[in-house]
């Protein structure tokens, strides 16, 4: 069973169905992709940093996984989007010089990215990613759930998960309904009560995406563009631009101020586009499930009581071999906290959860080593263990 029918949950469902499992996907909404995954469009491209840090490495691998699963669907017209390229705008000569320097230092295939100077006021200098672009998350969720071994049940808010050792199954309760599953993956997004129940440190971060009627814009963009926000070609008759970051606002209504903020970001890179008045725009509010280190939470879920007993209540400075091995809840995994970059992470997460469930490991030692590093970076227990390892716990207050 997968709890959550957004990008993360639908990716897990598709990958597990392809692996031969029967999958039930449940969601508190009546239809899939009703939360943050309901935005009309989002971007797909690498995250470049000068030091090629763990986040860059993770999203590079995540991008490859997205490409493996989604590219053919886009080419065949089964998913709305375009993965033939996008431009990441650079607004100053300094940005251009820095990006040029980065690319000479980073070991990234040149067929993926190059630097281009500005060609006009509305075509700024930028990093041009060839194997990147934009996707419509609702259409991707719909395609991912389209498998004979996947069943969707909407209108079910999961209230409790109870493991029954006698049957080796989870009992999933929603009101008067109880469902059973051999394995459960939590992929519920930002506003789920399960986040607190299972000590998943998810921070909801509000974002408003703006939609402009296609006929209100004087001429089309040549493709998707990343800037302080992002802008894509029309989806279902609307240009899409966004998105705001509005912590700690929890209002679920759209606002003119947020439309104007999105308009300012767009005007900074395409000053002559002649945007319609923001008061004419439509839009949508969603809440990104974010984490403190801006990486998702992926993998088997540690037993919190065991962590407290075996680690957090013990001195933090003993040799590692003196501590017992981590213990996990039986047959319980999580794919959460994908934030604003879920299109570049949910498919890697789904593949990794599949491999953990099936006990699959890479045959190549160097690939296995890299996978272990990425597993550690997104491990569900890292936010409890890191402050303990550093001797920073105070009354076991953990964020």
TrEMBL record:
Protein name: FAD-dependent cmnm(5)s(2)U34 oxidoreductase
GO-annotated molecular function: methyltransferase activity; oxidoreductase activity, acting on the CH-NH group of donors
Keywords recorded for this protein, A-Z: Cytoplasm, FAD, Flavoprotein, Methyltransferase, Multifunctional enzyme, Oxidoreductase, S-adenosyl-L-methionine, Transferase, tRNA processing
Domain FAD dependent oxidoreductase positions: 2-354
UniProt KW Cytoplasm keyword: yes
Highest taxon listed in the record's lineage: Bacteria
UniProt record, GO biological process: methylation; tRNA processing
SUPFAM superfamilies reported in the protein's UniProt record: FAD-linked reductases, C-terminal domain, Nucleotide-binding domain
Organism ancestry: Bacteria, Pseudomonadati, Pseudomonadota, Gammaproteobacteria, Thiotrichales
GO cellular component terms listed in the entry, alphabetical order: cytoplasm
Annotated organism of origin: Thiomicrospira aerophila AL3
């Amino acid at each position: 069973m997968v709890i959550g029918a957004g990008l993360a949950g639908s990716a897990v469902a598709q990958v597990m169905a392809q692996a031969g499992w029967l999958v039930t996907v449940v969601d508190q909404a009546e239809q899939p992709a009703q939360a943050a995954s309901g935005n009309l469009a989002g971007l797909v491209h690498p995250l470049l940093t000068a030091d090629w840090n763990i986040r860059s490495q993770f999203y590079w691998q995540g991008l490859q996984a997205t490409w493996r699963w989604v590219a053919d669907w886009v080419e065949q017209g089964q998913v709305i989007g375009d993965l033939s390229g996008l431009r990441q705008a650079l607004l100053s000569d300094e940005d251009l010089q820095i990006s040029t320097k980065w690319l000479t230092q980073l070991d990234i295939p040149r067929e993926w990215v190059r630097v281009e100077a500005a060609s006009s006021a509305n075509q700024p200098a930028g990093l041009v990613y060839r194997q990147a672009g934009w996707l419509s998350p609702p259409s991707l969720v719909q395609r991912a759930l389209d498998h004979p071994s996947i069943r969707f049940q909407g209108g079910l808010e999961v209230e409790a998960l109870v493991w029954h050792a006698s049957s080796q199954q989870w009992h999933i309760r929603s009101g008067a309904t109880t469902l059973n599953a051999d394995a459960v993956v939590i992929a519920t997004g930002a506003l789920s009560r399960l986040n607190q129940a299972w000590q998943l440190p998810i921070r909801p971060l509000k974002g408003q995406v703006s939609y402009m009627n296609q006929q209100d814009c004087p001429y089309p963009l040549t493709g998707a563009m990343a800037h302080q926000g992002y802008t894509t070609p029309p989806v279902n008759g609307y240009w899409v631009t966004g998105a705001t970051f509005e912590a700690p606002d929890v209002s679920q209504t759209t606002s003119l101020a947020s439309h104007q903020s999105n308009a300012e970001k767009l005007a900074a890179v395409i000053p002559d586009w002649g945007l319609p008045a923001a008061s004419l725009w439509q839009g949508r509010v969603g809440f990104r499930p974010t984490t403190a280190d801006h990486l998702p939470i992926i993998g088997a879920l540690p037993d919190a009581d065991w962590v407290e007993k075996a680690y957090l209540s013990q001195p933090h400075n003993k040799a590692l071999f003196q501590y017992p091995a981590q213990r996990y809840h039986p047959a319980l995994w999580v794919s959460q906290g994908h934030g604003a970059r879920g299109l570049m992470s949910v498919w890697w997460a789904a593949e990794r959860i599949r491999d953990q469930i099936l006990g699959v490991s890479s045959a190549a030692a160097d690939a296995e080593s890299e996978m272990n590093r990425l597993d550690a970076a997104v491990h569900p227990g890292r936010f409890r263990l890191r402050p303990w390892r550093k001797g920073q716990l105070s009354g076991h207050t953990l964020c």
